[in-house]
């Protein structure tokens, strides 16, 4: 299937991009936005609409496949690339990348994607272009994208629906109630991104989780969702960076959440990759000493395949969020998910609310092909939409992959 032309058009992301540094520093809400000046380079405001770039590959038979270049909500921090400028990204795609793509005969995905993954471009660009290439390969082979990835990497996975993980955004209680009614597997994320939200001693987070456990019993009796909250390093701030104090708090939190298992994402921020690895390894060791089953989820400072392997080698994670836009090309997402599985940790095929419907659909295929432990329901923060986009795509994959040919 030969590529004859390359088009690129700026489009909307599924939510907003936020300056995490300014929010953690205490920027107050101003209605839906935030008051004050941004701190992270590239931001015009603390909260601004997410941008994306749709890359369309025109094929020799006149058909078109596409992928969307998208970045995460909290760009420019934790070792990530800067916030995405879709117009600037379009110039890159229509320049050097288009020259690499035009005339290529794409019958498989891995070889061409690995070659292009080496180009020095913004991770969002590598992400979107690789989505489009995977779609072309699937069209050429007349199979689903999940089957292409599964077979080209010989993952040995039997395709199945991956547990869905939904995120509530700022509507923590309404969002969680929606998730319980939908029967979501993993919930609620919670967006606990400031000391004000968790409480200076963590009491507000504890109160919220106690409410959630009680509400689960009322709205979904008998259901056993996994609880997973993201605290954006704020527990480290609340407890002065004391690993022992954070571990003791998490152990108590785990007891309060019983009978539901609890995972906590980015409990502390080590300020660098090495610092984060050391902090998370120490926290896991202390939780083990306390006999607590609470799981540590890594995200920030874990942005490349090498980062993922370093965290795993140090025993610094129970769950690794493979944050798809941060990895760039889907080649790296596949490698990271498989490395996590091989290490015996939980492989979370994540991403961001700021992505698009297309990037969410394509990464659903990758999550299935790699046997991920959970996949983010994205984009957006409304709960229903992300569950629909990712859940429906997985249902379609199973219907198509199971069809006799």
Structural notes for this entry:
The protein has 405 residues and is α/β, with parallel strands linked by helices. The protein folds into two domains: 3-152, Enolase-like, domain 1; 164-401, Alpha-Beta Barrel (TIM Barrel), CATH 3.20.20. It is 45% helix and 17% strand. It has helices at 20-24, 86-101, 110-117, 123-141, 145-152, 172-182, 195-198, 203-219, 234-238, 243-257, 273-289, 305-313, 324-327, 330-342, 357-369, 384-401; strands at 3-18, 29-30, 33-34, 47-59, 64-70, 164-165, 186-189, 226-230, 262-265, 295-298, 319-322, 346-349, 374-376. It has an eight-stranded parallel β-sheet. Helix 15 links the parallel strand 12 and strand 13. Helix 3 (110-117) runs antiparallel to helix 4 (123-141), helix 6 packs parallel to helix 8 (203-219) and helix 15 packs across helix 16 (384-401). The mean pLDDT is 96.
């Amino acid at each position: 299937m030969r590529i004859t032309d390359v088009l690129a058009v700026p489009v909307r992301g599924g939510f907003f991009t936020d300056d995490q540094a300014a929010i953690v520093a205490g920027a107050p809400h101003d209605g839906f936005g935030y008051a004050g000046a941004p701190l992270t380079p590239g931001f015009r405001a603390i909260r601004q609409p997410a941008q994306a770039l749709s890359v369309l590959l025109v094929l020799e038979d006149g058909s078109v496949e596409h992928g969307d270049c998208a970045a995460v909500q909290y760009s420019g921090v934790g070792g990530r690339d800067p916030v995405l400028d879709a117009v600037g990204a379009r110039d890159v795609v229509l320049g050097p990348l288009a020259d690499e793509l035009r005339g290529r005969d794409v019958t498989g995905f891995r070889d061409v994607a690995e070659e292009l993954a080496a180009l020095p471009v913004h991770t969002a660009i590598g992400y979107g272009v690789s989505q489009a290439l995977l779609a072309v390969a699937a069209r050429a082979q007349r199979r689903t994208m999940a089957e292409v990835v599964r077979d080209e990497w010989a993952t040995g996975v039997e395709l199945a629906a991956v547990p869905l993980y939904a995120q509530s955004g700022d509507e923590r209680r309404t969002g969680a109630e929606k998730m319980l009614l939908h029967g979501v597997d993993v919930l609620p994320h919670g967006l606990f991104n400031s000391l004000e939200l968790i409480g200076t001693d963590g009491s507000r987070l504890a109160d919220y989780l106690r409410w959630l456990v009680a509400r689960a019993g009322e709205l979904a009796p008998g259901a056993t969702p996994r609880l997973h909250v993201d605290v954006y390093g704020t527990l480290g701030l609340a407890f002065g960076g004391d690993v022992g104090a954070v571990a003791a708090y998490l152990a108590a939190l785990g007891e309060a959440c019983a009978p539901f298992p609890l995972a906590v994402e980015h409990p502390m921020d080590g300020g660098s990759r090495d610092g984060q690895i050391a902090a998370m390894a120490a926290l896991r060791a202390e939780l083990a000493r306390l006999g607590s089953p609470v799981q540590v989820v890594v995200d920030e400072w874990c942005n490349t395949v090498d980062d993922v392997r370093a965290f795993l080698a140090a025993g610094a994670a129970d769950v690794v969020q493979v944050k798809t836009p941060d990895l760039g090309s889907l080649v790296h997402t596949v490698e990271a998910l498989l490395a996590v599985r091989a290490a015996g940790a939980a492989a979370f095929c994540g991403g961001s609310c700021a992505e698009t419907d297309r990037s969410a659909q394509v990464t659903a295929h990758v999550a299935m092909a790699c046997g991920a432990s959970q996949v983010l329901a994205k984009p957006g923060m409304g709960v229903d939409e992300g569950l629909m986009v990712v859940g429906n795509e997985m249902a379609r994959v199973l219907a198509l992959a199971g069809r006799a040919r």
